[in-house]
Amino acid sequence: MLEVKQVSKRYDGGRGVQNIDFSMRRGEIVGFLGPNGAGKTTTMRMITGYLYPTEGIITVDGLSVHDQARKARSRIGYLPETPPLYPDLTVDSYLKFVAKLRGVPAREQKLRVAEMVSRLGLNGREKQSVRHLSKGYKQRLGLAQAIIHKPDLLVLDEPTSGLDPSQIIEIRSLIRELGENHTVLLSTHILQEVGALCDRVLIINRGELVMDGATDEIGARMENRFAVTLEVGGERERIEMVLGQWAEARGIAAEIRTGPLEPEKSLTVSSAIVESDTDRLAASSEAPDPDCVSENGEPKAASDDPESSTLEKTGLQSAEGFVSSDRQTYSSVRALLTAADQQDFRVELFRLLADADLPILELHKENLTLEDVFLKLTSEPAGLPGKSGGERK
Amino acid sequence: MNRILAISGKELRLYFLTPTSYFAFAIYILMSSFMFYVDFVTYQPSIIDYRLILGDMLFMLLIVIPILTMRLVSEEFRQGTDELLLTSPASVTEVVLGKYLASLGVLMLLLACNLVYPAVMSLFGNLNMTTLWLSVLGVFLMGASMMAIGLFASSLSQHQMVSAVAGFVLLLLFWLAGSMTSQNETLSAWIEPFSLPDRISNLTKGVINGPDVIFYVSLAVLFVVLSIQVIERKRWR
User: What residues does the ABC-2 type transporter transmembrane domain cover (chain B) (predicted)?
Assistant: First the structure.
């Protein structure tokens, strides 16, 4: 579908991109990440034929973007960073112009414009001048412009930048929809967007491609450790001792922190309790829930609500065993355990804590998030260790 | 061809949606009618001839044309719409030709406005129709080459004002080519042929002179090609 072969672009200032090399299959949605100035826009401009590369070849469906420009470009839809709109034209006349420019057959033009208007929710604004559209609508019009000729390849440069959250969601769902029929290359700053939309990620840093891989795999590929976060119920000192000894023996880094509990969760629990006596009893007696204790034990005791004072009592009684001796009332300990070798120690850990009668409240394997990968790759000088992660064909 | 028409259609539409072109037309009509009043009504010539007022009208083109052409390419760069045009299947040649065609349309409109004056003149006596239409043709050819120069100036900068000034200066050079060097015989022999207004005198007399026509046409072609090159070059930046 799209082949970018050893493409470089040099500018006078020495910026630009070097040896970008990747290809895209039909129907893929690929996210293009990189810090500002890394060369995303330059690369996209070369793919769309706006700029010519200094070296290398770019082909779309086997057609060179440079030598068979007309044919190749008619298969590409491009939404630049700022949508290329004429503020003085109306929505209708703008789309009609683009349809003509992009070579949509004359008798289909009207139909296609109407289709774009309804597909992108521009209904009722056809006669409005582009100048008076809000940013979200401008972005939609920009997208309409890019897909009006039904291109095979869609290149979107930061399609959601500067939009409000609901508009971002709309545009994203649109892109997802477009991804069913088009091959999409999109650049973005928002990492979650890549996770939400893309099958594959390309990361570019200082003009070089440092990562190319499936969205859900790159975290694992970059991983060179095994880490879990753990929440254990019990006295802090005891947990520290048990974990500390074991970790030292196994060569695992254990970082113990009695993190605060999630406030929302405990609030809903406590309000549910306050609602009725039976609920309260059931909750406080059956579950020595550390959440109740921490939330109700301290702040609520101060209030003169009679309900909360009884609650405090019951809560404290039932959770007696969990309240640690140091003044903090956390009844659980959170810890981050990291093994430098990538060995899975979770079973071992479970046995250890079970033997010590310390209940594991939560155990979560830490994966490198896209964010971690991104930061890791882009904070290193280009061309050094990240390169090993990049898969080159 | 369809793409050229699409682009020139868009340009013409934009001409009539932007206040700048109305401003340019307003200045043009105001000044030329004022000159007509001075030349014809106040001065009261004893003969009826289009050439009496033509000279002043030509001078107005020098001011109006840079204003009309300044946004042609500059505005695309400023708005980022060049990314739309240059990534569309249209080639730069098609884009530039489309724009040039639109500017010729505007030029014809300017000329049409100016035909009011000979119409008024003809009420007071016989107007020689051959010289009238050949003069119009001459003005069109000269205007067309001036439009091409303006288009070229517009492709040089993304600021309309810079383009307008550059266009004006370029046009002024071609305009004054004849008179600047009139003191020095050898120098003027070299430079005078490039003078814009000198070339039109034959046509206004009713003589179609090949070199004059070729001069205007080739000047237009030259600057259209230069504009194409300037824009194409941006891909290699």
Answer: 4-190
Cβ neighbour number for residue B135 with a 10 Å cutoff = 23
* Residue with the two structure tokens 């891989």: A213
Give me the amino acid identity at A331.
S
**Tally of domains within chain A:** 2
Chain A contact for B13, CB < 8 A? yes
Name the band, by pLDDT with cuts 50, 70 and 90, for residue B159.
very high
A156 three-class SS? strand
Probe site for chain B from A100, A141, A145, A157 (most B CB atoms < 10 A)? A100
Distances from the Cα of B157 to the Cα of A41, B9, B231, angstroms: 22, 23, 11
pLDDT over 70 percentage in chain A: 75
Predicted local distance difference test score (pLDDT) of residue A380:
61
- Clarify whether residues A190 and A207 are in a common domain: yes
B88 touches chain A (CB under 8 A): yes
Could you tell me the two tokens for A149? 């000729």
Q: Which of A135-139, A301-305, A310-314, B212-216 has the highest mean pLDDT?
A: B212-216
Same domain, A326 and A340: yes
Contact status of B229 with chain A (Cβ, < 8 Å): no
Domain that holds residue A191: 2-222+373-389
Decide if the complex's ipTM is over 0.85: yes
- Are A200 and A339 in a shared domain? no
User: How far is B97 from chain A, CA to nearest CA, in Å?
Assistant: 14
Tens digit of each residue's pLDDT (9 = 90 or more) over A33-42: 888 888 888 8
Q: Chain A window 52-111: which residues touch B at a Cβ cutoff of 8 Å?
A: 52, 69-71, 73-74, 76, 78, 80-82, 84-89, 93, 97-98, 100-103, 106
Question: What is the DSSP code (8-state) at residue A25?
Answer: -
Judge if A109 and A218 occupy the same domain: yes
Q: Are A123 and A218 found together in one domain?
A: yes
Same domain, A187 and A267: no
Contact partners, residue B186, CB within 8 Å, separation at least 6: none
- The pLDDT confidence band at residue A362, using thresholds 50, 70 and 90, is confident
Lowest-confidence range among A4-8, A166-170, B75-79?
A166-170
The minimum CA-CA distance between A162 and chain B, rounded to whole Å, is 17
A263 and A142 fall within a common domain: no
Whole-angstrom distance, CA of residue A120 vs CA of residue A94:
15
| Token duo for residue B40 | 């014809």
A203 and A182 within one domain: yes
Name every chain A residue with its beta carbon within 8 A of the beta carbon of B231. none
